[in-house]
Amino acid sequence: MRSSPYQFVFSYTNSRGEINQPLHPFYLNNRLKTIRKRHSNLAKPHPHALRHTVATILSEAGMSIDDISKALTHSDPRTTKLYVDAPNIVKLSTYTTFDEYLNQQQRN
What we know:
Elements: E1 11-12, E2 21-22, H1 25-38, H2 47-60, H3 65-71, H4 77-84, H5 92-107
Antiparallel strand pairs: 1-2
Helix pairs in contact: 3-4
């Protein structure tokens, strides 16, 4: 997917090839259900947890809480700080390992 300075945090390319389309909850839930069917050994993912993961990764990458808050459309940066400081957060190295695994599976 090509990104731009106006990229949504969660988006997809629709069937007409239009990029950066807002991700609707039903679409995300359907994709997560597909993942659960293929990988029954994984814990049940919760869509909202993705926002916490993105906030954490952006923070680890050096983005300010205010900028993360704007990206997640939080009205109060204190909410964003709770996301970043949440227990059991996914570390960037875990995300990187997961991303590498997904890329390897796509090549196979």
